[in-house]
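Researcher: Structure for this, please.
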Amino acid sequence: MMGGTVQRSRSALPAPESTGELLGDIPEPVRQVELPSPRALLEEVRSPGVARAEVDALLSGLARPLGPGESARERADLLHEILEDEQVRDYTGSGGRRVGHVAVLQLGELGFPYALEVPPELYAQAREADGHGESMPMQGRTRRGWGLAMTTLVGGVEALPAIFLALDGRSTEVKLALSWILGVALTSVVPGMLADTEPVLSRRWLHTLLRLAVGLPALPWFAVAAIIVVGALTTGAMPWALAALVPLGLGLLRLGGASFLYGSPPDEAPPEPQAD
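Model: Predicted structure, token format:
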């Protein structure tokens, strides 16, 4: 009796006609909404009758990391395009942030070499307006200007032998000259232009590294000056000792540039509070 009841209960259940009928009741997974690209957001801001919400969306899009397939060069070109558009760069979001200032800061966030494409004074203005730091006092700006002038001058003098060597036209000499010029640039002009950028101001180790890159090459110049003076004293040709002023001056220029550009290390970030 009981077996018959169980049999009737089983036969009362409708059998699915196909596998699709079973899967039909399963809800489809929620698809992740694809965010518009910074380029698309920029075009919306350029359209007539732009609203504050569209400006906020552009500011948010510029702060996002690089998207799939997007290169740092493409993002940098987009930021430069914003800076060249007088209307777009003056738009202000609901939080008071100006599009032009955000574009400058994002160029600094991209790092080398894109941070070099921003003038230091423009970057300082963007940091001040965005609340990342106080404006540099006039005395500090003067010191940085002198430091940049010193490193540029000494780099130009040190590159002169390589330039004359490259004029010879031989492939080996040209390669050697290019390597020499690159080394001089990395220890003079490049550290001078990076002194006020965000990566250097926020990283003490990078600040110290660039200071050493500018100052350490002064030691060979001091050694050359000492050799010239000693040679003049031992041979009795005292007028030749005046030639030591050239390497001595180049060494002092390097030390002065390192002091003016990287005299005081950046403040360390306060430690994050420990969770109880």
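Researcher: Any notable elements?
Model: Residues 38-129 form one domain. The chain has two domains: 38-129, 139-262.
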